[in-house]
Amino acid sequence: MKGIKVILLLLILALSGKAKIYAQEDTALNSALEKMVKANLTENATELIKYTSPRLVKAMGGKEKAIKLLKQSFSSQRTDIAKLDSVIN
Length: 89
Description:
The protein has one domain (2-80). 66% of the residues lie in helices and 0% in strands. By secondary structure, the chain is mainly α.
């Protein structure tokens, strides 16, 4: 369950910004979102961290610790039978 919270927090922080951006109109944002979802589905923590807010990575203790935490989250998702298979923007 903790893993789901971490992934959702990452997605919320990644999609929030200072300026209003409508995801349907921003192809760069849509592309990044697709890559984030793919990285999540393939459990690629290294790729997912590229699209994570630097402030969040810092709060997680740096890149290496953030990757370790994501891998632990993926592992717990498998045991908790939870899966993020799509994102609606």
